[in-house]
Amino acid sequence: MQKSIQKMTDVMAKFVGYSGKVLPDDITAKLEELSKKESSELAKTIYKTMFENQKLAKQLDRPSCQDTGVIQFFLKCGANFPLIGELEQILINSVLKATKDAPLRHNSVETFDEYNTGKNVGKDTPSIFWEIEPNSDKCEIYTYMAGGGCSLPGKATVLMPGMGYEGVVKFVMDIMTSYGINACPPLLVGVGVGTSIDVASLLSKKALLRPIGTQNPNERAAKTEKLLEDGINSIGLGPQGMSGSSSVMGVHIENSARHPSVIAVAVNVGCWSHRKGHIIWDSNLNFSIKSHKEFSYE
Questions:
Q1: Mean pLDDT for the stretch of residues 11-36
Q2: What are phi and psi of 145, to 5 degrees?
């Protein structure tokens, strides 16, 4: 048991650190695609600098952004996964190890007491969100570095039903034309629509974890994703908010059923350096990486 715990801790620590240095495959591909669409020399230069930044981060084995964010884990864990009882402490210990080994910036400040713990671990940090899957012995883990300029300043509200989904679109556009420019575009925009503000907020964060290019399975939601993407691109934020043809890498909507009296909506955005990771463990503690094809634990 102890060897299994240590193995999972070590792998998760290395994977968290790696995800802060090397962008996911889908993000890299999308940035390359968007860079080819730009015509202005300024936009081209910014993209060139972004790619050089990523190259140096990998070569120097250093995080690609000085803000390595608050570490967040989103779990889809089988009820029969052998380390389900130890998993929360494993993830906390992996953050402690990654903070030292990667290294990661110290980003856990105890509220009210106002001191930095110096280890990225504090009261309820790292953030761990659970989903338990019956009759499964696998554990699917999404990792995310939530930065202080992008997804942490998310916005949410509750609309009256008469405002309809037009109200959802208006809310998203209002947010994107205000703080969107400061979140280091091009952005990945996550929108949550549900029955309460807490549900919508969590859905908007989960939307950021979907692979770029995927669509909401609901036809109307998927159409809204496309309309919002076109609308936000038309603002012309461009790379780093310095103008250009593309403002976003995509818009993802996640939704739940809602109470008849309310439409809750939340918006979270990922910056161009969108540091998410996706790893799946089986019952024998073998793992597969879905987000970074070059990751190796050797």
A1: 98
A2: -95, 105
